Amino acid sequence: MWSSLKQLGLPSKKGQTCCIIGLTIDSEVCFDNLKVAEKFNSFYTSVASKLVEKMLKCVKKYGKSFVFNFYSSKGVRPNSFSFSIVTESIIFKYLNNLGCNKATGLDGIPSRFVVYAAPMIAYPLSHIINLSVIQSCVPDELKSARVIPLFKKNDKT
After folding, report:
1. pLDDT category, 123, cuts 50, 70, 90?
2. Number of domains in the chain
3. What is the DSSP string of the chain?
4. Is a pLDDT exceeding 70 seen at residue 46?
5. Quick check: is 125 in a domain?
6. Domain range spanning residue 121?
7. Could you tell me if residue 13 is inside a domain?
8. pTM of the full predicted structure?
């Protein structure tokens, strides 16, 4: 992917800038930043469902027992993924371990403020998380994400 981006004019040396990024969409190279971002977003938000579709085809082709034995040999067990109740101290520990220089989330709150406020927000956060686990329901606001493609800098070229 990076060699393709380089061919499209993405700079590889520090100090160089490029504001035009092209991506092949529907057999055409597109330079519209919004369309490029939407393509990345649709890819990353649909990758899991596409993998599940492939799993179903695999089960139909090879049989349920073959697929079960394959995943068992890899250490994957049925119902091995679970959520559990969290304590205020666990939430406090994770909040304190946030990097102060990390980017903000969709809420726009800098991580530095979250770290400073950890003693006051650990209990409410643990309560919200535990309610989600108990009710098996995650609020829609917590299901949103911003996908931003970050280009790797290559110092060797």
Report:
1. very high
2. 1
3. -HHHHHHTT---STT-------EEETTEEE--HHHHHHHHHHHHHHHHHHHHHHHHHHHHHH-HHHHHHHHHHTT--TT--------HHHHHHHHHTS-TTPPP-TT---HHHHHHTHHHHHHHHHHHHHHHHHHT---GGGG-------PPP-TT-
4. yes
5. yes
6. 82-143
7. no
8. 0.48
